[in-house]
Amino acid sequence: MKSIVRKILLVMAWLLAGIIILLLLSGLLIQTQPVKNKLARVVVKQAEKVVNGELTIGKISGNFFSNLSLEDVLWTYREDTFIYINSVAASYSLWPLTRGELQLSKASINAPYVNFQQHQDSTWNFNSLVNEQTESSTDTTSASGNFRLLLSNFQINAGRMQIQALDSLIPNEVRNINLEADGAYSSKEQTLNLKRFGLQTHSPDFDLRELSFAARRTEENISLNDFHLKTAQNGLDATAKYSGDETKEIFAEMQTNPITINEFEFLLPNFTLPAQPEISFKANSTQKGVEATLSVRDKNQQLNLDLFSENLLQFINGSDKTGLKYNVSGNIENINLAHWIGNPELDHTINGNFKIDGNGTDPKTADIKVDGDFRDCVFAQKPVKRINLKLRMNHGDLSGRINAKGNFGSLTVLPEIKDLLERPTSKMQLVTKNLNLAPLLGNDSLQSDINLKADLSGEGFDPEILQVRANLKLSKSSLAGYQLDSMMGQVNYSQQNIVIDSLWANAESLHLTASGNYNLAGSSAIELVAEFENLEDFSAFIPLDSVYGKGNVNAQLSGRQDSLSLAANVELQKAGFTDISAGKLVVNATGQLTPGDTTFSAVAQLESFKAGSFELDSIRAAANYFIDSLQLEMQANGNELQTQLKSEIALGNVIKIALSEWDLDFKNQHLHLAETPAVLELDSLEYRLSNLKMVSDNTDSAQYIKAGGVFSQHGDEDFEFEVANVDIPGLLESFGVNAEISGRINAEARLNGTASLPELNGSLEIDEALVYGYKFTDFGGTFNLKDDRLNFDGQVVPLDTGMLEIKANIPLEARFDSMSFLVDSNAAVSGGVTVQRFPLSAMQFLDEAEKVEGFLDGQLNLGGTLKSPEPDGNLSLKNAEILIPKYGIEYKNIILDLQFSENAAQLDSFFIKTDDGNLKATGAVDFGSAIYNGKIKQSEINIHFNSFNPVDHRQFNMEMSGDASLKAEGGKMVFDGDLEIPEANIYLPAIMNLTGQFTKPELPEPVLMREIQKLKDTTIVSVAVNDTISVNDTLSIGSLSNLTGRLSVKIPQNTWIRNKELYVEVSGDLEVIKNPEFFELFGSINVVRGQYQLLGKTFKIDEGSITFQGGEELVPRLNIQAVYAFRNPEKVKQELTARVSGTAGEPEISFTLDGSQISEGDALSYILFGTAMNELSIAQQENVSGAGQIAGSAAMSLLSSQLTELLGEKLDVDYIELKGEGDFENATVVVGKYITNDLFVSYEQRFGETDEKDLSKYEVKLEYELFRFLFLQLNNSSSESGFDVIIKLNSN
């Protein structure tokens, strides 16, 4: 028995040993490479039974017990790689399998590559990689509930995917896929710890730099910890926890970095978020419910939400059937919608709080309340002080109230909508109080105060069944300054038909009514009538300045939507704007609007049209518009202009204007179309004009303007323009110019070449030219533009002798393709002016000139560039003479010699001779670089006056001696001079007349009436003086800051200033100093002697001076004293002295009578009546021998001056005087005239009763000035004849 047992044990031992040896041998065999290769082929063969394509494994390594590695794993399908893995490795422990646990200490996939392709039918290549398996019997074995998987380290390194997809959102390539994680799995618990994960995509581009988290799930809890996401531009951190046990605990928290939404543009192509907000979220559950906070912030803009729900968890689990209950409280600070949405039109800033209380999520059954209080908001840059709203949505019914207040006034909306989601019926009331449109619309001209109440009601929202009724009531309001008293209106909408039952408005100058209907599907008929009294009240709505007028408007719209008729009548009376006006304007217009065609006709009639000084009696215009053409007729008639035209315009890609009639009459000029039609064609590239010729008549010598050809902005040019036989006198007369110029203008121009390089040739000639009596045999020239050079050659040839020729060649770049004309200042120029014995008499354009003689010679050549020209030549004038008696100019032996060079102009000599002396000048102007630059390097001009007579007229003459100079260097100019005026005689009215001050004599109010009226105001004397003396406080010399110097003027005596009332001799010494900032004037002007006539009385000027003391302000000091000697009613001689002191700006005037101070009123009384004011009586005022005598003298003095002004020029006399002894019973008329500057003749005739013994009936005097100090006077009268010798001696 023992032996049997031993044998059995021995056999079993051998069997066990054999098994162990076999296992050992198997373990050893699978470690060999041939066996591993064999196993790889077996694995591949088995895999090919399941998948399509070809699978190969390059190499298997590892001991199979603790680690295994596969290399060069390749899966191809249809000769294209699907998956390639460089290596797959795993380290594990098999022993834990005995207790149902698989432990992987490490697993890695290195450099995997996957190629995904999507076919045109949207299927992918991997859909065909796995074979369809036949159904097998169901596996009824149950998995062990205790199996557990532990993964300590799993990595994917340098992975890459190539994707060919139809959707552009799927990237073409995913590269740099790297992952590292560990975790565990069992039926009761799962954990995943993602340590790192990152990838990059291409087209679209995305960079996931880091993703990590720790997640755990059990049968009752789920948690997410340390969640961290980072991309190239964004970042997110979060944590969350959920307990499914009885506590139902929820906790979540999230925080983002500033979000840059552009990174996800490929996912959200139409979504923009200019803001970069930070988002914070936190939620947790409590015993009362779930609480959450959400904060969105970008700089100073933020939105904060507080959320609470007492049954959120129950609602999610479905255990609460009552509906979700929630409360939301929000706070908005400086949220700008344009900043968040990216639409600049939504420039709205919101501040405020709101609250939402809700029960339920189904709008049909939910009860939701919304309360909002928004303050200091801004909508479209318009501030809104406060918006308050209360809305409630209760089982499909909406009601509430919305209030808004701001600097625009207040606005209230009361909505009430029943059954909003099914069959809504609505009521709404809109109320505005003091509504101001100016801040709302950003237009200050629309300042308004609108008070409106609108009640609306209706059913439905679908336009097919919508019905709306609106009642409008506007109480007293204003719009843009226009006051509107009231407006009432009732408008209904039903079945696509808008019915205006009534609409009327009343205001101070407006009455408006409207009624009718507009049907979207049927017939419409609307009428509008408006009457207005003053268009100025509507100036804020009319884009014209200073508009005015009154009138009415009547308009009707009728027909179906596919065939609408429009008729309108507008009538304005006495209307206009700025300086344009019309007595009456009537416009009648009709139109037809259809989907396929639109026609429009209008007739406008304008009467009494004025535009500044231009006037037309009437204008009539008629237009007919069709979808492809426009017909236009117009007539205008006025005193100076009449015109009429007819045209038809074809509309299309090429606009064709056919002018069938055009007549133009302007004053004495007439033009009309010679042939019809004249055609103008316009397109985007060319303008083509043909058959345009305007002629004055049908004769061969008629004036005409002709134009035609092609003007292109891109192609070839071929355009001609011609003007012929234009009569110069008639043309000047048309423009109101009176000049002795005649001749006929002929000009032509032709444009050729291309738009980028045009060529222009032309000429201008004046035939039979006659200028102020001087004939010219040649007057004209030619011009040419070619190769960006403009050439001009002109000649002026007088009839007798001489010639003036001008030639020029300058750079001019003309581009009609860009409509630019450029002159290159650095390009070369050439030209010249040739003057050969050109008579000055040919330049005698002033009719005042009696004699202009002399010849001008010279040659001036020009080279260099426009920026730095190089002139060279000379200009000379010899033995010239200019005589203009009207201005007292009599210059003889005029000599001029002027030399030009590149850098200088040399005045070799300049000489003028007058009767008493001459003027000489020499000098040079040296320019630093070129004359064109105007930068003076150094210059000096010296002028010597030797008894020179600038003017020598019988009424104004002057003699001047001395030296003056002007020097310049480095941009600074200095003048210096010492001048003396030995004698002068100035008659002020003659000077004023020459300067245009006295062009039309006007009879003033009688002096006595004027002066007696002034007696009522005792301050009138000083006011009158202030009105007489006018002083400029300062001189504006900002442009003369580089000019300094001094000029001394000495007036020894013998300088007389006179007018009708004034005759004084002055002397003095003045010095003008020019500082860089201002002028200064020093010295004084003294009155040597003189007299002044006031109200027929002679004031003798004993002394007087005007003193200048320098300073920036020109304020001279006055010291003038005048004495009037008279006899009072008691025949006692008295002297009235008037003294003026102070400054010219604030003069002080005082009066003394025989050394005693008197008032201004008494002074005027003594002048008029010879006695003081308090001594006047009614009898004295009525006594003709008292006031009447003086009044008569004053009247005679005034009448003399008026007769001189009114009759002097017509009778060709220089002096008219009426004298008398206070009445016209014994009066004398004196008439005088200068025969020459030295010879004066006068005739005196007496009227009334005369004493033959003492007085002569008439007297003739002849005065002749032999020298300045010696006069001879001859006289002849009805009683005696003789002569006198007068010697005038100066006291100094």
TrEMBL record:
Keyword 4Fe-4S in record: no
Taxonomy, superkingdom: Bacteria
One Gene Ontology term from the biological process aspect of the record: protein secretion
GO cellular component, one term: TAM protein secretion complex
Location relative to the cell: Membrane
Listed InterPro entries: DUF748, TamB_C
Keywords (A to Z) from UniProt: Membrane, Transmembrane, Transmembrane helix
Domain Translocation and assembly module TamB C-terminal: 914-1279
Membrane topology: Single-pass membrane protein
Pfam families per record: DUF748, TamB
Protein name (Swiss-Prot/TrEMBL): Translocation and assembly module TamB C-terminal domain-containing protein
Taxonomic lineage: Bacteria, Pseudomonadati, Bacteroidota, Bacteroidia, Marinilabiliales
